[in-house]
Amino acid sequence: MKILVTGATGNIGRMVVDHLLAAGADDVRALTNNPERAALPAGVEVAEGYLRRVASLPAALDGVDRMYLAPVLETVDEVVQLAKDAGIRQIVDLSGDANTEWQPIAHAVEKSGADWTHLYAGEFTENTAMWADQVRSTGQVREPYPDSANAPITMDDIARVAATVLLSDGHEGRTYNLTGPETLTRAARVQQLAEVIGSPVEFVKVSRAELIQLLTPTMGEYAEWYADGLAMMVDHPIPANTTVADITGAPGTTFKQWAAAHADLFR
């Protein structure tokens, strides 16, 4: 069974490749825009191509049975049509529900006629790295909503789920909402981060406008959207679920585990 991983040198795609190999997959093809610099593991078939460059894809899709589809909106209709024409039997996509901009990916995959599995993921735990500069320089996290609560998931856990689904049957026509194993407020995350790095970190409550000003240099127009999302989760916290553990047989990564592995970012 040949498995194609698109976006194979992106954050999640590369992890999907690694988890497939760790699980014993022996026919993995990795799509990358720059094979010479990809540094993919030995035993992986490297195919040159890019989801935003549709003309580069037919050769990479040829002979593939199952595919992990990275979240690229602009060309998804053309990509899934090519996948259908190539005879791909199952597409596992990273997309999102109706509250996100990513749902058109799920709709396009369903219309392809292939078997499908949707992976919906909320906030990545890795987004916490946005605190790194201010924690290192001031020992503070400045945000408006200490009680905003989410269940962030690591990219590695998403990749573990994707690899498991690609290598096993019974996931056709399923949509998996993926979260981390616990719901934490922003203030609780700050407290756990301080415990892990071994120095005080203070949550400083500021205005929504100040948060947007802080985020705009890196997020641009999405800064306001992100601030509004935090506000929404004060009264509507995101509940954690056990889907990662149910599918993979191993528990999801806690925030404290992630923070411990990346503590040097904040020291």
How would the blueprint of this fold be written?
Layout: E1 3-5, H1 11-22, E2 28-32, H2 35-38, E3 45-48, H3 58-61, E4 66-69, H4 76-86, E5 90-95, H5 103-111, E6 115-121, H6 132-138, E7 140-143, E8 149-150, H7 155-167, E9 174-178, E10 184-185, H8 186-197, E11 202-205, H9 208-219, H10 222-235, H11 243-248, H12 255-261
Parallel strand pairs: 1-2, 1-4, 2-3, 4-5, 5-6, 6-9, 7-11
Antiparallel strand pairs: 8-10
CATH C-level label of the largest domain: Alpha Beta
CATH fold type of the largest domain: Rossmann fold
Instruction: Give the termini separation.
Output: 45 Å
* Low-confidence residue ranges: none
The CATH architecture of the largest domain can be named as 3-Layer(aba) Sandwich
Task: Kindly report the name of the CATH homologous superfamily of the largest domain.
Answer: NAD(P)-binding Rossmann-like Domain
Number of helices: 12
Number of domains: 2
The H-and-E topology, N to C, reads as EHEHEHEHEHEHEEHEEHEHHHH
Largest sheet data: 7 strands, parallel
Structural class: alpha/beta
Morphology call: elongated
Key descriptive features of the protein:
single chain; 267 residues; alpha/beta; Rossmann fold; 7-stranded parallel β-sheet; two-stranded parallel sheet; 12 helices; elongated
Concise summary:
The chain is of the alpha/beta class. It has twelve helices and eleven strands.
Overview of the structural elements:
This protein has helices at 11-22, 35-38, 58-61, 76-86, 103-111, 132-138, 155-167, 186-197, 208-219, 222-235, 243-248, 255-261, and strands spanning 3-5, 28-32, 45-48, 66-69, 90-95, 115-121, 140-143, 149-150, 174-178, 184-185, 202-205. It has 267 residues and is of the alpha/beta class. The protein folds into 2 domains: 3-121, 3-Layer(aba) Sandwich (Rossmann fold), CATH 3.40.50; 125-152 and 181-238 and 250-265, NAD(P)-binding Rossmann-like Domain (Rossmann fold, 3-Layer(aba) Sandwich). The strands form 3 sheets. Strands 3-2-1-4-5-6-9 form a 7-stranded parallel sheet, with helices on both faces. α2 (35-38) links the parallel β2 (28-32) and β3. α1 packs across α7 and α9 packs across α10. The radius of gyration is 20 Å and the shape is elongated.
